[in-house]
Amino acid sequence: MHTRPDAPRRPFLAGRHPLVARRLAPFVPHLLALRAHLDRWLFRVGRPEPAPIVLGQRRIFVMPTSAGLAFAGALLIMLIASINYNLSLGYALVFLLGGVAVASIVHAFRNLLHLSITPGRADPAFAGESASFRLVVSNRRRSRRPSLRLKARSTIAPFAIAAEDSADVLLALPTTQRGWMQLGRVHIETTYPLGLIRAWSVLVPDQRCLVYPAPEPMPPPLPESAARTLGQRSSGGGDDDFAGLRPHQAADSPRHVAWKILARGGPMLTKQFSGLDGGEVHLDWDALPATLGTEARLSRLAAWIVIAEQHGLAFSLALPHASVAVGRGSGHCANCLRRLALFGTGYAADA
């Protein structure tokens, strides 16, 4: 059953010992509420934030890394040894290294200070593929920002930014279900310059990606409505012999555009071919076998839409309480897949 995209990504008790899970089960709602309250209070994490998101002083947190803790332990041992043996050079070395570690705190903090994050493109993807979220990170300072990382769920994207420049960072997140997928919580962090200190900030960009239903791997042939007209000659959408040019329409495939004429400053025209007409395909929800469930029907219709688009066929789509007229082209295909993705989710197809 399809769930809303804002549902929890991972159950709170997942992966825990069964005995521990049973004892903690009554407290899970209270623990989740406490965690959400701490996130809002400490990290200021709540609803998606409007762009651009600027990292001010109160949004950046600093903690030692595991290497930093080991370094601090080594300095403590060296300090005890210097006190025990009254080593003047030992004192000097301990305080010198300690001063370097303290200075690295400032550098790590400044490496994130005043960075600006703006959501970029998020192209649609099929369920099971990776959803590509792009974030534009801008640096207005006259110095570079090295050794930066963006983390979202299990994905880590390292990057660096030159002085007074910006970086287009791609976060490829796995998808499991159709519908709108929110980017959610994102961490930006750095361990520059020595790896002893970790400076990080938490942000929630207002960005989402549309996830189409996964196409059926081995779908049956297209409905017979297209096969009945196969073999008829046409001067419209075949791909055999060039038959002339006509004014471009929004539903035309980009591969049929006369790009050479457009590059010479001419109008945008579409090539016509005389060949075998592919006919029209009528994809009807009610015509599918009654044994198919909702997700299986959507998966088959998605596969048929992809096949029809690849072969340049005109097709229509009929769903319960909605329908799309006959058309062709990438825009028509995206519109139909969008309606399949949002079917039964409570979102309007034109939202």
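(the above was protein one; protein two follows)
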Amino acid sequence: MKKKLYMAVETDEYELPLYVADTSRELADWSGLSIGYVLITISHCYSGKKAGIKFLRVNVEWEN
């Protein structure tokens, strides 16, 4: 089964996870930033230095 997860991570070299969500909307609500900003930063691979948070989309696959 394949699924996409959305993550907010720290902007340092370790990129430790701050929050994991099922949808980009949930991630935007948690961060207080707009959904458009979250999606743009994900699609353009922004570093997140300006907002202090980097956003990622991660594809995961597992068996039931």
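Reviewer note on protein two: The chain has a mean pLDDT of 93.
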